[in-house]
Amino acid sequence: MKKIVLALTGVALLLSGSVIAQDNNDKTPDFKKWQVRVRGVGVVPDESADIGIIGGDVDISTALIPEVDFTYFFTKNIAAELILGTTKHDVHTTGSDISAIGGSSNTNVDLGSVYLLPPTLTLQYHFYANETFKPYVGAGVNYTIFYSVDEGSTVRDVEYDNAFGYAFQVGFDLMLNDKFFINMDVKKIFLSTDVTVDGSNLAEGLSIPAKVDINPLLVGFGVGMKF
User: Fold this and answer.
1) Model pTM score
2) Is residue 78 situated within a structural domain?
3) Which of 4, 58, 71, 216 has the most crowded CB, counting CB atoms within 10 A?
């Protein structure tokens, strides 16, 4: 959490300097303050795990999802974006040692699937290269909710702790006219969660703790409208 606060503080200081340096024209309400985008997003986890008792690592599947986001412009350059979407991932361990319960010393354990709801809020700075090409950068916070867990056919249950993370982004809007545009956006979310696997169906009292880093890369492409 301290890392999140420090990151946002740094971004706020950087952007506040930019706001002071803006021309007076940027402070007048001669721009559209809202925009909405619809994007297709590829979610690519950069996963790793510290798994207790059985060891090994984790594999989390890639997903392709629809996403909607809303952006509010405080000035022509400074904006806040909220993204909304949900994604499903298949999960299994890799190279785990379950020889103590009669299995292999190097096996993959199916942990079923889980849905993630990761609303992410970023503070952005928008550049105006020209009337058509408008790149931006941003940083912010994420809170991921894990739900609809399907533990699969191997273990009794899998529990994921909801978790805060932080995010960085870069992207651009390519204006088609003064209202509609095409968007390309890349986000990196740094996200970790505590996972508890209930394997009591395999061995009495077996509970397997794990610290899982998901750290997904989100690559989005879509269309938007200013209003």
Assistant:
1) 0.84
2) yes
3) 216
